[in-house]
Amino acid sequence: MKFLYLLIFVCPLFLSCKHKTENKSQDPEPTYNDLESGLLPAVIVGDSILQNHTISEAMETYNVPGVSLALFKDGDIVWTSQYGTIAKDSAQPITSTTKFQAASISKAITALGVLKLVETYNLDLDTDINTYLKSWKAESEFTESKKVTIRQLLNHTSGATVQGFHGYSNVGITPSLLDIVNGKGNSAKVEISTVPGTQFSYSGGGYAILQMLVQDVTGNDFESYFQEVVFSPLKMTHSTFNQFPKDNIALGHDDSGKMHPEGHLIFPELSAAGLWTTPTDLAKFSIAIANSYKGKPNSFISQDLATQMLTVTKVWGLGVGVRGEGDTAFFFHAGGNPGSYKSILINHYNKNTGIAVMTNAKQGNTLNDDILRSFSALFENSVFEPTYITPYELSEKETDALVGKYQLEEEDNYFLDVYSTDSNRIVLYDLNDGMKVTFVPVSKTEFIDVDNGGKSSFTIDSITNKVVKMNYGEGYVFKKVDE
Hints:
Pfam families: Beta-lactamase. By secondary structure, the chain is an alpha+beta fold. The chain folds into two domains: 100-378, DD-peptidase/beta-lactamase superfamily (Beta-lactamase, 3-Layer(aba) Sandwich), CATH 3.40.710.10; 396-481, Pab87 octamerisation domain (Lipocalin, Beta Barrel). It has helices at 29-37, 55-62, 105-121, 150-154, 177-181, 204-218, 222-231, 270-273, 279-293, 303-309, 364-378, 396-402; strands at residues 19-23, 43-45, 66-73, 76-84, 100-101, 276-277, 321-323, 330-336, 342-348, 353-359, 387-389, 404-408, 415-420, 426-430, 436-441, 446-449, 455-460, 467-472, 476-481. The two termini are 21 Å apart.
């Protein structure tokens, strides 16, 4: 279920978790080995004894066949490590050059390439995008007073629709980018649905427009432009927007640990989801942004553009999320697709210190979170820390009030069952696909997901004193219904 997938991921066993490590640092090796052996849980309940676990143990728990990571510090890649195999039943190990699908991290790469385009061709971030587009126009009733701009497309405030893309079979014929934007693929037509610049709405469709921008301005195809202008200069030697890399690629696995029937999907929406790369190359990309931000000699883009890239408008920077202040400030992007691959990139850009992690399974998100908590502990930052909670002991009456069936508002056929356990837990059970999420109460109406720290709450009618609604995750509301 798409709602439960926001917070949990479930998976099976695989045969081995052998790993290869490359230590490029002058620091003692155990310093970085602590990262792989010091994974922390999302939630620590009460006086529970804290038990760290290893990456290999977490891979087995989440049934993630392969993991690759790169750690960088002060602008240098100091440590890389790889674990497992390219597929569950394969003997081929993940190596430092094994490519993964980066999914939405493609948008961050695209953003840097677009900023380089702006710099090279003297484009204006705040001019009507239609000034530069030849093959398609961003027009609707909402663009009469305000026009769509490059800046808005980069920071998801353009009003462009289509949040994400579904992928296509790698053995069939795929539609052209123009057909996709016009709704002739397996996704809706990309439209401008709000006044540009007025609100944040994450949009893969907006990045498809940027893909057309690159091609219309340069007269070159998107893949070739990035190979020549981004990957080669940054020495990202194992990165490509070619949807059919020739060798050494990790294959995707679903949440049960089963390999995708075709190994992977393809994404002609290259700018939004089509990148194949490695954590090492993502680290190089990330370091280049921070170096540009600091105005170092021979930086990839100007300090001014890099500063704009890391300036938040509404919610997002230009192609990346940005959080924190001073030494704790960091930019980031995550990626995940139906294939299924999950990745994360984070950089404390004032220190140019961060981590890139890539996995080849749907539950890789949960593993990535565990690794980020270990990274945060190792470098004593607050990017990702466990949630410490004091459980609330529900009375029998309070428990009975919560238990029952809940319907997603505005959806007639989407239901969750809520039931209790003997250990003071509440379980959300998806009646559509059998997925479950377990929550610990912190009050009689507020609950924390024991697996990832996600929050859920219940609304009690002040007159009847009965539970009437459940607020789940980020904005999903379920109303309690009669059995």
